[in-house]
Every structure is written in structure tokens, then in C-alpha cells.
Inverse folding.
């Protein structure tokens, strides 16, 4: 510590080149795991969401068609016919006409049947063209009543069933939640963390040391990648154990896809945080960036429902690419080589966001 | 002695147009402890951050051991230990983890336990920063600077908020660092601290250096290092010409409170009593003391360094008219 120049480098053993990176990464991980709320938002919340939504949507909502037969002459006969043959498919009750119609309109009933007043009159079915489950109820009741009255099928039929793995709502949902979680934790974990450090003047303090800027940024991105592995393990594990999802792709392929996702959103988080001075402003920015993707990128429902003209644009969103990639890899076991388009979209986003972020990044 | 830090014609205009530093020349010798003094907003932090390479100056040259920031930034950073005025270190890391993190940035850091010991943080080494008191955190901030094994230590108000004992401990640490050949640049609001710690002092006000020298030189510049303070009652004493008393170099008066500067109070006092008697005034209270940097500051700026609330009840600064006279020397 003298005023003279320090001895030449070779004469003393300095620290290994990875010391700074390693310390930054372990500091980041320790900070994160010591913060209770962070654990909740990163790990517990997505699991709760998956289980909640999965249970809510596990069975088709309309297992049993709820049918009211309007009381009057002939009602008893219809009721008997449906009651005997309906089994678990049709729940039937007798009601006054006004009450029955109100039930149909409010969604509590799926079909209102008005029996024929005298033999030879038509049966009247009231259904709601806006609600598909009322069509199902109509077909079921129609089938039961007509068979009871003696109709026979002309062509012989044999029903065969596939076990519907991979096509249930929960199968669609779990990869979507995984994608959304990678986006949330990437944007918050990188974007928010950086602005918080800037506000605390910790970035400035780091800038006053010889710390390599790349070590700092790399450690942030690495911490995301580590969390990504835990995220995937938790959500997929929950999907497999609780909902019996069949994972068709190899774990390596899935991990690679997840890594690409975590990397892409770390870049986006870095960009949103590159200049913001206050955590309030970066929070707004992060939500603004994420909002369109929650809606358009097919997390909770397929984006195919949007008008076809928008689809090319929607497919360019990073979360759309990630969700599609995860679904293909997890549910269909697609190899990455078949997903080059989606991978290119994500790599494109990463390249642009990282370059701009490094250009604009402010240490103070 | 070679110079550790030197700067020429330093200017800083902030984006809003505020000129925080207006043409600053500094020369800090290697091995010196240099104190930068000045009231709030004087431009101390701006200056020190330019020297640390954190802020780009609008104009002027900075050189650290003969190197400049434009070409040798990464080399210079290895030499500096920095404690900023308002950093909040991570609360979820322990003291030791924080020091280890900062140490890892340097090629040849100091031993962590040695630094912990010298700042008396050894018992707190495994405590989270969030659980430390403000003063203890301040010491950790200084420790992160020391762990760099720096050649120059930059401390921006290192003792603000510390209790007297911790302040003294920190002074001790700074002296030890200096004894091992280190150079220190510190800013402070405490004149007594600067007087005790600093080899040289620069007083800053409104972006300029208004006086520079050793503490003794600055006090000597008052032409007399003793201050005689007294209160006169009874007679309007405003008419008395205090400078007519032999040996009085400077007089300052507000209502009945008078402050005289003199080299030898024992020669002034008999004459003072006679003059008072002639004027019909009654002496209510009299004390003499050594002049301090505070007096230098008041003389240079016409203001006190500390704001009203922090004042220890001196006779000045209540906004009333004040009369200062000075003997032609
Ligand atoms: N980032 C900034 N943008 C605009 N003006 C600034 C900025 N930082 C400081 N200033 C202004 O520059 C002037 C000098 O500020 P500086 O922080 O250097 O003072 P200081 O001497 O360190 O004061 P203190 O004793 O309160 O720490 C002040 O008037 C301040 O308002
Ligand atoms: Mg300051």
C-alpha cells in the first residue's frame, strides 16, 4: 500500500478471473432466498395458480345436462322417459313455464322441454344458440325421447375411445403457465432488481470498483437460469404428479427451451431497466410490456381465437414463441430442430434487447 | 512528494444548467490526508465523484498518480477505495459476505478479517446488514473501501451520523491507513474533524475553493489566533471603536455581543477594560478561546458552516445586522 507502483502482476498471485462473477452470483442468490416474499411469488404462487386452474377446469363443465320439463298434460310421460333412461347424462325436473324460461336465460338450465299437449303434437325444445352446452342437452334429450318412442338406428355403430392425454385444458395450461412464469420472473428478477440497486446507489458504488460490467450482467442472467431450472421442475412435477400430464419431450430439450426463454426475458428486463431511476417507473414499464403478452400469447387460452390478420404479429411476441415452443416440446416431444422459427424469434429478441440495453445502461 | 491527485480547471454543469463546480484546482500529495470542507450544496460530492471517475466533468483535467480517466480507467480503479455519501448496501447479506463481494472485484484485496478487526466489526461479521445500526452500516461502507487495499481512500462524509466514540474509532482507522502510506481525501461538515485529521484543508463554497492550506495556516490567516468574546450591557456600545485597542486585528459586533480577534489576549484585556469604562459600559460576560476553522469559515463567507438548527447557540446567524471591522495590516 505504498505510493510506489505495485509490483508487476506476475510477482503476486491475484484472484482467479471468476472470483467476481462467482461472488456476484452467490450474493444475488442469497439475497433472493433470504427474501420471503420473493420465494412466494417465484415458487409458490405459480404452483397455486396451476393447481387452482387445473382443478377448476379438470372436467368438462357440463357433465350433466340440466333439463326442465314444463308441467302440464303429457309432462309426466316425458319426465318418466327421461328419468328412466337419462342416467347420469340428464338431470330432469318439472317446473312452471315462466320459471323454466328464466332458468334457461340465466344459465342455470340447459334445455326447456314443452311436452305435446295431445298425442301427435310437436315437442318443443327451447335452447340457447349462444351456448354450445344447450345443443348437447337438446341432442341428448331428443335421442332419449325418440328411442323411447321406438326409433331405431339404421346403421350399426361401435363406439371406441382414445384416452384424452395431451388435449385436456390442463395439458394446454401447464406449459403456458411455465412460459408466463419465466416471463414474470425474468422481467421482475432482472428489471426490478437493477432499478432497485440503482435507486440505492449501489450500482454507482459498483461502478467505482474495477468490477467488470459483464460479470455483473452475467451474474444477473445466470441467477435467472438457475431459477428457471427450479421453476420447470416444480411446475412440470406438479403437472405430472397431480394432473398426470404426459411429458413426451426429453428433459434436456425442455431445459434448453426454458433456458432460451429465461435468457430472452432477462434481456427484456435488462432493457426496461436500463435507464429508469425509480422502482415505481420501472414497475409501470414492466407491466406495460407484459400486459399484451398475458392476453395475446396464449397463456390461458389459444391465441388462434384472435382474428387471423393478427396472428403473424402475435407469433412475433417472445412469449408466444416461448409458449408454442414449450407446448411442442413438452406435449408433442418435438425436437428443437423442428422449432427453428420460434427459436429464431426468441434469439432475435434477445439480441436486440441485450444490445440496446448495453448501449443505454446507466450506472448512476 | 509526488502528487496523488491533481486537477485543473474542473467545472461541472448539471443537465439542468446548475453549475455545481466552477473552476477548481487541487493538488493532493501522496500520503496526505486532505479535507474538503463546505456547507450543504457547496459541490463537495460533485467534486469527489469527478475525481473518482464516476462523473464526467464539463471541463478540466483530472490526474490520479499521473494517469487520467479517459485512458487508464481500469488501472486507476484498482487503486481507489471509495465510500459514497448515500449508498445502501444489500440488507440481506451479512457483513462478511458484503466485504467478500467487494474484495472479489480487486486483483489484490486485503484480508477480510484484518479489515473487520480494524473497524471493530468482528462480532458483527455474520449479522445481516439489515440488522445493523446506522453507524455500524456506515463502518461497513468504509470497510468496503478499505478491503480494496487502495492507494487512495475517498470518503464522502464518513462520520455523519456516528456517535462520538465511533467517530474517533474511524479517525484512528484513517490515521492507520495513512501511516501505511495511503492517501486520503475526505469531505466533512465537522470542522473539528478536519482540524484533527487533515494535513491540508480546502474550504469550498458555491463550487469554488475559497481557502486552502494546513489547518494552522488557515487559522493564522485570521491575524491572531485568539478570540475574545464578551457582552456589554448598559451603554450603547455601538459607538466604541474596538480596533483602536492595540493588538486587536478584527472586531465583530452584533448588538451587545462583541468578538475580537487578537494574537495576545493578555495584552488586549487591560486596554479593553479601560475603553469600556470610559464608554460607560458594563461587562456582562467575557471569555477567550483559541480560534478555530469555524472562525475562518465565518470570516471567509460571512456565514456559519452549520445551519441554524445545528448551531450550538453562538451569538451569530439570527439574521440581525452585523458589523465586521478589520484592522489594516
Ligand atoms: N444530479 C444532479 N443534478 C442536478 N444538480 C445536482 C445534482 N447533484 C447535485 N446537484 C446540485 O449541485 C450542487 C452541489 O451538490 P453536491 O452534492 O456536490 O454538494 P455537497 O457539497 O456534497 O453537499 P452536501 O454537504 O449536502 O453533501 C447542489 O446545489 C445540488 O443541488
Ligand atoms: Mg455531499
Amino acid at each position: 500500500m505504498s505510493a510506489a507502483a505495485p509490483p508487476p502482476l506476475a510477482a503476486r498471485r491475484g484472484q482467479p478471473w471468476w472470483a467476481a462473477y462467482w461472488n456476484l452470483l452467490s450474493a444475488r442468490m442469497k439475497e433472493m432466498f433470504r427474501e420471503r416474499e420473493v420465494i412466494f411469488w417465484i415458487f409458490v404462487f405459480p404452483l397455486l395458480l396451476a393447481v387452482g386452474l387445473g382443478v377448476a377446469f379438470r372436467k368438462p363443465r357440463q357433465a350433466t345436462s340440466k333439463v326442465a320439463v314444463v308441467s302440464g298434460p303429457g309432462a309426466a310421460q316425458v319426465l318418466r322417459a327421461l328419468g328412466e333412461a337419462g342416467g347420469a347424462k340428464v338431470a330432469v325436473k318439472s317446473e312452471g313455464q315462466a320459471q323454466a324460461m328464466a332458468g334457461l336465460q340465466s344459465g342455470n338450465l340447459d334445455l326447456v322441454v314443452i311436452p305435446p299437449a295431445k298425442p301427435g303434437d310437436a315437442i318443443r325444445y327451447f335452447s340457447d344458440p349462444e351456448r354450445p352446452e344447450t345443443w348437447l342437452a337438446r341432442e341428448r334429450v331428443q335421442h332419449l325421447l325418440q328411442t323411447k318412442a321406438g326409433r331405431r338406428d339404421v346403421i350399426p355403430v361401435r363406439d371406441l375411445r382414445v384416452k384424452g392425454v395431451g388435449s385436456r385444458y390442463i395439458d394446454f395450461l401447464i406449459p403456458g403457465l411455465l412460459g408466463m412464469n419465466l416471463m414474470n420472473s425474468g422481467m421482475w428478477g432482472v428489471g426490478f432488481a437493477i432499478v432497485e440497486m440503482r435507486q440505492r446507489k449501489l450500482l454507482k458504488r459498483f461502478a467505482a470498483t474495477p468490477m467488470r460490467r459483464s460479470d455483473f450482467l452475467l451474474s444477473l442472467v445466470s441467477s435467472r437460469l438457475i431459477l428457471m431450472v427450479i421453476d420447470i421442475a416444480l411446475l412440470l412435477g406438479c403437472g405430472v404428479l397431480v394432473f398426470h400430464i404426459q411429458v413426451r419431450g426429453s428433459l434436456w430439450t425442455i431445459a434448453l427451451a426454458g433456458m432460451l426463454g429465461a435468457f430472452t426475458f432477462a434481456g427484456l428486463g435488462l432493457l426496461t431497466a436500463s435507464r429508469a431511476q425509480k422502482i415505481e417507473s420501472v414497475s409501470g414499464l414492466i407491466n406495460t410490456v407484459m400486459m399484451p403478452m398475458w392476453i395475446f400469447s396464449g397463456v390461458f387460452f389459444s391465441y388462434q381465437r384472435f382474428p387471423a390478420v393478427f396472428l403473424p404479429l402475435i407469433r412475433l411476441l417472445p412469449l408466444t414463441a416461448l409458449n408454442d415452443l414449450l407446448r411442442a416440446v413438452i406435449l408433442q416431444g418435438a425436437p428443437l430442430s423442428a422449432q427453428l422459427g420460434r427459436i429464431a424469434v426468441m434469439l432475435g429478441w434477445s439480441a436486440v434487447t441485450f444490445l440496446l440495453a448495453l448501449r443505454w445502461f446507466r450506472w448512476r | 512528494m509526488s502528487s496523488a491527485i491533481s486537477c485543473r480547471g474542473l467545472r461541472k454543469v448539471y443537465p439542468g444548467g446548475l453549475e455545481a463546480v466552477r473552476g477548481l484546482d487541487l493538488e493532493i500529495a501522496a500520503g496526505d490526508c486532505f479535507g474538503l470542507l463546505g456547507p450543504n450544496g457547496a459541490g463537495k460530492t460533485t467534486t469527489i465523484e469527478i475525481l473518482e471517475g464516476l462523473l464526467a466533468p464539463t471541463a478540466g483535467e483530472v490526474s490520479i498518480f499521473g494517469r487520467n480517466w479517459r485512458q487508464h480507467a481500469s488501472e486507476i480503479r484498482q487503486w481507489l477505495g471509495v465510500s459514497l455519501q448515500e449508498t445502501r448496501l444489500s440488507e440481506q447479506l451479512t457483513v462478511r459476505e458484503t466485504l467478500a463481494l467487494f474484495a472479489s472485484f480487486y486483483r489484490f484485496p486485503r484480508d477480510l478479517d484484518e479489515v473487520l478487526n480494524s473497524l471493530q466489526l468482528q462480532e458483527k461479521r455474520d449479522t445481516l446488514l439489515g440488522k445493523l445500526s446506522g453507524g455500524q452500516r456506515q463502518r461497513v461502507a468504509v470497510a468496503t473501501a478499505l478491503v480494496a487495499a487502495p492507494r487512495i481512500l475517498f470518503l464522502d462524509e464518513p462520520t455523519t451520523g456516528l456517535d462520538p466514540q465511533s467517530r474517533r474509532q474511524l479517525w484512528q482507522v484513517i490515521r492507520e491507513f495513512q501511516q501505511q502510506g495511503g492517501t486520503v481525501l475526505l469531505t466533512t461538515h465537522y470542522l473539528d474533524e478536519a482540524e484533527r485529521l487533515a494535513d491540508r484543508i480546502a474550504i469550498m463554497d458555491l463550487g469554488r475553493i475559497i481557502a486552502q492550506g494546513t489547518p494552522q495556516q488557515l487559522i493564522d490567516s485570521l491575524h491572531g489566533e485568539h478570540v475574545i468574546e464578551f457582552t456589554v450591557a448598559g451603554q450603547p456600545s455601538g459607538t466604541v471603536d474596538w480596533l483602536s485597542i492595540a493588538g486587536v486585528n478584527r472586531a465583530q459586533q452584533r448588538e451587545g455581543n462583541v468578538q475580537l480577534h487578537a494574537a495576545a489576549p493578555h495584552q488586549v484585556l487591560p486596554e479593553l477594560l479601560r475603553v469600556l469604562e470610559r464608554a460607560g459600559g458594563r461587562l456582562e460576560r467575557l471569555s477567550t478561546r483559541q480560534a478555530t476553522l469555524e472562525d475562518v469559515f465565518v470570516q471567509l463567507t460571512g456565514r456559519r458552516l452549520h445551519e441554524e438548527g445545528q448551531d450550538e447557540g453562538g451569538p451569530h446567524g439570527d439574521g440581525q445586522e452585523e458589523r465586521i471591522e478589520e484592522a489594516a495590516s
